[in-house]
Specification:
Layout lengths: L2 E14 L7 E3 L5 E8 L4 E8 L2 E7 L7 E4 L2 E6 L4 E6 L10 H22 L1 H21 L4 E3 L6 E3 L3 H80 L5 H110 L1
Antiparallel strand pairs: 1-2, 1-3, 1-8, 3-4, 4-5, 6-7, 7-8, 9-10
Helix pairs in contact: 3-4
């Protein structure tokens, strides 16, 4: 039977930048068809999209994949086998394109079906894999426990102070979370900006075509006006030459020609009015694009500020750790000196006891 298509949608395809893992790279200049296929022989689901002669998406659906809807027109999922993240940007014309909710629901349905098929044949392998993954995590938790130092016995333990570590770690995690949210916002803005730029290019092409058509219509209108004037001159010449009006047949032909020209002129005026309204929409689209670019620049500035704060926090954390190690060294040295003094005092006490006994 081979692979059979089960669902299709048109969308703009993006891939995450492999160098930064933050920015989106358009994989297609225009909206392409993204299809879900099912292979009955291998019981495998795949997502395939072809742009021209090149496969833009060739992804096998696994139970661990998750389709995340990041905005009303954008969704994404990660492909660990290809070591990339795919993004789909949908247009706003709901009557021409499948909405993002249908794609998300179909993705969940296909993922659940793949999970069931995999659980039937690989239950034992999944259990072993889960144990293997869990063991390093437990070991990491043990390694992260705070160290202790024994001084003079099992009951005399000196715990390192953790208040500075907790404060700096919480501040670092909070800033990293803010930076992650800023990156997601930046990716959404870039996807919206790409959609606006695509719509802008379409409107520009339509306006150029409309301007060309207007020039052609103006030339045709001038030709029709010249033809009308020529016909009127012929009627006037016939009336003057014959001393009587033209025949009824010639009058009907001239009247019909004039009516056709007037109807054509009216239609051209309506088309010019429609093009002028589209020009207003084009200006609105340009304004929306400018706003999106402004918001993108603000997000980039905020991300730069957050990165600077993270670097400062890491530097402060490093300095605090060095200060703490230095204090620990001094405390250890003081303890050693104190142990020596205690030993000397003990010897002195024994000497005094012997002297008193004598």
């Amino acid at each position: 039977m081979g692979e059979q298509p089960i669902f299709s949608a048109r969308a703009h395809v993006f891939q995450i930048d492999p160098s930064t893992k933050r920015n989106w790279i358009p994989a297609s200049k225009h909206a392409v068809t993204v299809s879900f296929f099912y292979d009955a022989n291998r019981n495998v689901y795949r997502i395939i999209s072809v742009g021209g002669t090149k496969a833009i998406i060739n992804c096998t659906v696994t139970p661990s994949m998750t389709f995340t809807k990041t905005s009303q027109k954008f969704g994404q999922w990660a492909d660990s086998r290809a070591n990339t993240v795919y993004g789909l940007g949908f247009a706003t014309e709901q009557q021409l394109h499948q909405p993002i909710s249908s794609t998300r629901d179909k993705f969940k349905e296909v993922k659940d079906a793949a999970r069931l098929a995999r659980e039937k044949s690989q239950d034992k392998e999944l259990a072993n894999t889960a144990l293997t993954i869990a063991a390093p995590q437990d070991l990491a938790d043990e390694l992260q426990s705070p160290p202790v130092m024994c001084v003079n016995g099992p009951e005399d333990k000196l715990f390192r102070s953790q208040s500075a570590d907790i404060t700096l770690s919480s501040e670092k995690e909070r800033i990293k979370k803010m930076l992650s949210e800023g990156s997601i916002c930046e990716m959404n803005l870039e996807a919206e900006l790409f959609t606006l730029q695509d719509s802008n290019s379409k409107l520009v092409a339509a306006l150029h075509e409309a301007n060309t058509n207007v020039e052609q219509w103006k030339k045709q209108l001038a030709a029709y006006q010249e033809e009308t004037e020529r016909l009127r001159e012929q009627v006037a010449e016939l009336e003057a030459h014959g001393g009587q009006g033209p025949s009824d047949l010639l009058k009907d032909e001239l009247t019909q020609s004039l009516e056709e020209l007037e109807a054509l002129l009216k239609a051209k005026d309506e088309e010019i009015h429609i093009l002028q309204s589209k020009k207003a929409e084009y200006h609105e689209m340009e304004h929306a694009r400018d706003e999106a670019m402004h918001r993108l620049r603000e997000t980039e500035m905020r991300n730069s500020e957050l990165e600077r704060r993270i670097q400062n926090t890491e530097q402060n954390l490093s300095n605090s750790l060095e200060d703490r190690d230095r204090v620990d060294t001094e405390i250890q040295r003081a303890i050693e000196i104190l142990d020596i003094k205690i030993f000397d005092l003990n010897d002195l006490r024994q000497s005094l006891v012997k002297l008193i006994d004598k």
